[in-house]
Amino acid sequence: VPVLRALEVIASEEVNEPFRDAVSSIRTAIEQGLTMSQALQKYSSEFSLSVVELIKMAEKSGAWDEILQEIADGLSEGTFD
What we know:
The protein has 81 residues and is mostly helical. It is built from 5 helices and no strands. The chain is globular.
């Protein structure tokens, strides 16, 4: 699923209004040319610095599968709270 479509779906289904607004804003920022990591940096209360840095690594290396799995594992373990 393309990232913009995924963000659209998340925003449309999210019940937490502040998080929904953040996701919508991130989607808009990416559409306007920012990288995902740049867009996420504006929402440090929602996305930890560790997550943003891992996304930045994925953008540079192309290793999305591995890095997204690392983020998912960290979130489920509470590493990035």
